[in-house]
Every structure is written in C-alpha cells, then in structure tokens.
Amino acid sequence: MNTLHNFLFNVYPYICLTVFLMGSLARFDRDQYTWKSDSSQLLRARQLRWGSNLFHAGILFLFFGHTVGLLTPHFIYEPFISPGAKQLVAVYAGGVAGIICFIGLTMLLHRRLFDPRIRLTSHRTDLFILIILWIQLVLGLITLPYSIGHSDGSVMLVLSDWAQRIFTFRPDAAGLVALDWPYKVHLVLGMTIFLLFPFSRLVHVWSGFGTLAYLFRPPQVVRSRKLGLKPSVSNQQSGASR
C-alpha cells in the first residue's frame, strides 16, 4: 500500500502533467483538424443550450476555485481569513457551483445517451470523457460533508501543501495518508482527466483560453477609400445611340 500510495501521489502527477502538456502540443501540431468540440447543436439545440451553459459556468468556477485554493500559499491569505473560514467558503461556493455543473453535465450526458441521432454521431471518447467528468463531480460533492466535518481547515491545508509541493518539484504525499477515501479517489481521477485530456474533445479548452490573447493584440487599422464611379461601356454606347 505504501508503494501504491507513493506512486499515485508522488509519481503519477508528473506522468499526467507531462502527457497533458506534450500530448496537447503534439496533437495541435499533427492533427489540427481534430482540434474541435464536435458540437451537435443542430440535432437538439434547446437541451444543449441549457446543459452547456450550466456545465460551463459551473466547471469554470470549479477550475479556477481549485487552482487558486490549492496553489495559493497559506501566508498570503492568513492575515485576512483563517483556514477554517476559507474551507467553509470553499465548501459552500464549490457546492453551489458543483450542483450547477452536475445538473448541466447530467443533461448533456442524458442527451448523448438517449437521443438516437446524437448517439449515432457521438464518438466513444465523447461518452467516455463525459462519464468520467460526471463521476468526478459526484466524488467532489461526496467530499463536501467530510470537509464540513473538518471545520478547522486541516483538510484544505493538507491538500494545498501536497499540490504546492508537486508544482515546486518537492513531491511528498505523506500527509495525504490520513485523508478519507473520497479525497484520494477524487485526486487520482482528477489527475487521470489531465492524462486523457490530449486524446479527447477537451483540447478545445486551450482554444477558449487562447481567445484571451485578443484582448492584448494591437487594433487593426482599417482605412476607408472613396471610389469614383465611372459609367460602364454599355451605358456610354447606349447614350451615344440616343
């Protein structure tokens, strides 16, 4: 068990991050025609509109919330908020966003599974990644009661310390041993999503973040030019004949 724990939380994160970055670069370089979200809006627009909006609103909040919450050093927010209060804010805000995301993703998954036309046009990887995301959301919601039970913020500190050690190349997951099983499974499945990222439709997320570059690009200069209208040859001949 110690060997498995060491692999999952000390080695596996770097495998997933390497495949995530290098795989995305390789796919963009070699298979740009597959770099898309494969929308099925023409087949069933109403359910897609509701499900997609709810899912994207929830998942974006969860992504940035997890990123900021896990990677922000404790000493930065310590003067303003205690670890326990921060954990409660994360539980309630993340819970609301998680429920919104869960409703939207369930609508999208139901649409893919039970609409015959969409099912025929869906790739197996589309269904597979949606199911994994759905399970990951369920696991995240399961961790909420456990987090409320540790209102002192100890769980958040352990998870933050592990994530910051991974990103600063100081892997040491000894503190994760004492965590409850939903946290561990949630972490492993979350890393697996990064591992599968380059091989699924999720790569279009890069394009979404890439559009932010348009905010900083220089404006295009468009000059108007007045063109003088000249009578055509046929009009000149018709006028001469008159």
Automatic annotation (TrEMBL):
The keyword Nucleotide-binding does not apply. GO terms for cellular component: nitrate reductase complex; plasma membrane. It catalyses: nitrate + a quinol = a quinone + nitrite + H2O. It is found in: Cell membrane. Keywords: Cell membrane, Electron transport, Heme, Iron, Membrane, Metal-binding, Nitrate assimilation, Oxidoreductase, Transmembrane, Transmembrane helix, Transport. It is a multi-pass membrane protein. Residues 6-225 form the NarG-like domain. GO terms for biological process: anaerobic electron transport chain; nitrate assimilation. Dimer of heterotrimers each composed of an alpha, a beta and a gamma chain. Alpha and beta are catalytic chains; gamma chains are involved in binding the enzyme complex to the cytoplasmic membrane. This is nitrate reductase (quinone). It comes from Orrella marina.
